[in-house]
Amino acid sequence: MTDDARPNDGSATGAPNGGPGRGRPWSRRRRVLVGAVCGVTAVVVLCAAVGGFLYWKLNSNLRTVDIGAALGSDRPAASAAGAMNILVLGSDSRSGANGQLAGGADDGTSRSDTSMVVHINERHDHADVVSIPRDTLVDRPACTSVKGTGTVAAVQGAMVNSAYEVGGPACAVKTVEAMTGLRMDHFVEVDFSGFAKLIDALGGVTVTTTVDIDDTDSGLHLQAGTHRLGGDQALAFVRTRHGVGDGSDLGRIQLQQQMIKSILVQLQSLDLWSSPTKLYDMADTATSSITTDSDLGSVASLISFAESLKGIGADRTAGVTMPNTVAPSDANRVVPLEPEATALWTALRADLPVPQAVLALQQPNPATLTPR
Q1: Structure pTM?
Q2: What is the pLDDT of residue 283?
Q3: 225 Ramachandran zone, left/alpha/beta (phi>0; psi -120 to 50)
Q4: Both ends of the chain: CA-CA distance in Å?
Q5: Is the CB of residue 132 less than 8 Å from the CB of residue 143?
Q6: The sheet that has 127-131: what strands, in order across it?
Q7: Distance (Å, whole) CA 57 – CA 36
Q8: Residue 173 above 50 pLDDT?
Q9: Using an 8 Å Cβ cutoff, are 234 and 196 in contact?
Q10: Is-cis flag, bond preceding 339, omega within 30?
Q11: What is d(CA 160, CA 141) in angstroms, rounded to the nearest whole number?
Q12: How far apart are CA 156 and CA 170, in angstroms?
């Protein structure tokens, strides 16, 4: 049968070199192959579009503060060897969902209920978490007001957590840098609601208490033993103080330090990379729960930052409380205990271990870590 006599079987005809157009027909195999290629291409394009949207969504979740612009160059020098310091603040704001969790009226202000200096060593394989009691009296430097409309005068003997109230994150960073002599390379803030959401996104955390905790103020009631805590209970755990120790902020600090380790243990137990949905849900919750400095103000920056710290787990994290003693001017306040407090900051500036004299002052912890 000649080409002219070839029956019309409904197939497309090919060009002289086998391309589409006129000429020889495409075989079924070629049609299936081209269809598969087109399908895969469509999926790739769709995934790229979805990925772009998700990346934009996560970026848009982030709230940032340009600490560098606010403080200028009159700051402690950054480490030239790769060590870094992060100021982690827990805000006690009662606005929005925070009011339901924390109780109390929203007066439009907030303080740093929790202040921690996280020192990452030069090799990025160990972290020292130093808690600064919120009742610590310090010399607060002059700061731009929280509304940016003027300057708040320097004050001697101000509570350290008041810096955030009068001048926001930039004043908190400036105050801690003045007190410690350490450059705060990054800043991370989380409020009550954000913390509870993070814990729920992790699937909860496990802690073991060595004493009963009964605190009507925080709403935490736990018998001595092992407990699995969801977001609301975990928040109560890190906020409780009347149910442990002497009822001051010092007992609560011990619980907060243990919570950090419990969170790290839980993170290590989750195989996030094997579940894109779980990974996105965790990322979405995390980015919508925190405020960071502008250098960490993008998903790409956060990923790079997290990658640099991936070698630090619960077993490579140590928590201490800044050495302190009762303030001579007020029995309900504390001041840095010298020379131990200065020795601690000096050691961290030199990227050295926490001095033994500081470790010897640490109080026994009412809660211990329980691996999952």
Answers
A1: 0.80
A2: 84
A3: left
A4: 77
A5: no
A6: 63-65, 290-293, 186-191, 84-91, 112-120, 127-131, 317-321
A7: 31
A8: yes
A9: yes
A10: yes
A11: 11
A12: 18
